[in-house]
Amino acid sequence: MNHHALDERHELSRALRGTPPQAPTLCGDWTAALLTAHLVQRERSLTEALGRLPVQRLRRRAERRLAELVRERPYQQLVAEFDDGPPRLSPWAFAPVRESVNLLEYVIHHEDVRRAIPDVAPRKLPIGRQRAIWQRLRLGAPLTMRSVPVGVRLVWSGHGEILARRARHDAAQVTVTGDPVELALVAFGRQRVAHVDYDGTAEDVDVVRGARIAI
Description:
Distance between the termini: 28 Å
Number of domains: 2
Order of helices and strands: HHHHHHHEEEHEH
Low-confidence stretches: none
Radius of gyration: 18 Å
Shape: globular
Structural class: alpha+beta
């Protein structure tokens, strides 16, 4: 069993420890403290899990709980709880679940923290972790990009491609080329900070760059 998600968790925790709790992130209005509370709660609370559904009442309840958690616990304690992982008997502690479900979550949120600072350079990740991210994107990108109104093809040069959004008959297609983390940022709605190349008409590229992408 590999440990890519576990390694990413620890690296994200180090980044959070070096980030002020009120620092902005790329997650809308979430500060670093609120993002950390989310990471802790998603492995411990049904309220947080349900709050990610497109139901406003559930979303408001989850957001209130995150705000309460930030008020109740010191920031560094929240970071430590996230770094320590879920309770030992939790399904989230089971290595296959941890690796299959968490890797993209941690990668994206790690960059949410890092790239809230302008002009931060991409990280240099081990090739094994890059391959694991790429494999997770094969399932994740078609889900998150399902509403983009043009076809989208993600390309990791020398490694393959993912048809993230199939073009309708005679419709346009945009090719996005980059490393796995950068393509993940595009696939999860962080296009403006992704270091990628776009190939397509200017109009269609603008559609992809400006698309609202989310689960």
